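REVIEWER CHECKLIST
Item 1: Sequence provided? yes
Item 2: Single chain? yes
Item 3: Sequence as submitted:
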Amino acid sequence: MSTYEKIKISGFDKTSRSSNYKILSLLKKFPRKITHKIIAIHHTHEYLTNKEGVNTAGQVHFVSKNNTVYKAVILVFKTVTTPKYDMVIAHEVGHLVYSIHKKDPILQKWDEENFCECFARYCLYPKSTMILAKRILNTKRYNYIERVFYMLN
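Item 4: Structure as written out by the authors:
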């Protein structure tokens, strides 16, 4: 059984916009050393509102041992539409990467949400992210994400 087949994916077949199989295919875009830490990805038909009263698209729950992230469960909430499933899941995987590398001095200078958005874009759209990085983003940050991605593969 492959790493991907061990991940429990549920709830996406109940939507008319996606499927569990599509989500399984999405996982192949992420570094292998990260995907083996994911226990499950679940689409829930519930809404989650954050402290500011805004609906939240996704959330990751960590299972830790001795302050070290061991495994993760990703939840995707009802507010998310089809084109965003990929981005929400990739963003939540970014939180998993961030939690594993949070002691890295470069990462400590970086806002977690910003890192997760950049990581998600790098995973899903590597060529366009590189072009954007050269135009707008800090090239050092792009190079850092690229290095972390390949280190985890």
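Item 5: Key structural point noted by reviewer: The helical segments are 3-6, 20-26, 32-35, 82-101, 105-108, 112-124, 126-135, 139-152.
Item 6: Recommendation: ____
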